[in-house]
Design a protein that fits this description.
Helix 6 links the parallel strand 3 and strand 4. Helix content is 36%, strand content 9%.
């Protein structure tokens, strides 16, 4: 995993799983993610749940990349240690034209990448673009950081990274 995409060890915990068990868990998660991608007919390598994404990042088996806007990252919260590479900048209608170049600065093209956005939509597009650019192990984090809208059109109660109780901070 790239230095910029390292998960904070103080948050991740230092004990961890035994290396054999961790390796088996990583392989099982990646296999489930690939199966979900095939079942959904998406062009990228996998689709992971927030808990699976955290397990992969904590094990050092993947780099988690936040693709939300800087205001979302700062005000709503973010995963400690995850780099921000905006898929679409705040107020812009189109994708960030420098997205792939900026991604190249935080990750290598041969490592598993886990893209996180608010609800799993922008991260889906980011994973597609990364795959087209040669990042062969791109994955979408299902549910995103805040999850889906509920019946009252609010986020945070139906899935997502925060609802799952996974580590996050606010600036």
């Amino acid at each position: 995993m790239s230095a910029m995409g390292r998960i904070d060890p103080h948050v991740a915990g230092s004990a961890g799983l035994a290396s054999v068990a961790a390796s088996e868990e990583v392989e099982a998660i990646l296999a489930r993610a690939a199966q979900r991608a095939r079942a959904s007919a998406v062009p990228y390598a996998g689709a992971v749940t927030p808990h699976e994404a955290w397990a992969l990042a904590r094990a050092g088996a993947a780099t988690l990349v936040d693709v939300r806007t800087r205001p979302e990252w700062e005000l709503v919260g973010h995963v400690p240690g995850a780099p921000l590479v905006e898929w679409r900048r705040y107020g812009e209608e189109h994708a960030n034209p420098d997205f792939i170049a900026q991604l190249d600065n935080v990750a290598s093209r041969d490592e598993p990448l886990l893209f996180l956005c608010r609800s799993g939509v922008r991260s889906h597009h980011a994973a597609q673009a990364a795959t087209r650019a040669g990042f062969a192990r791109a994955c979408n984090i299902l549910e995103g950081f805040e999850g889906d809208l509920d019946a009252t059109r609010r986020r945070g109660l139906l899935g997502g990274w925060r609802r799952a109780g996974l580590p996050w901070v606010q600036s």
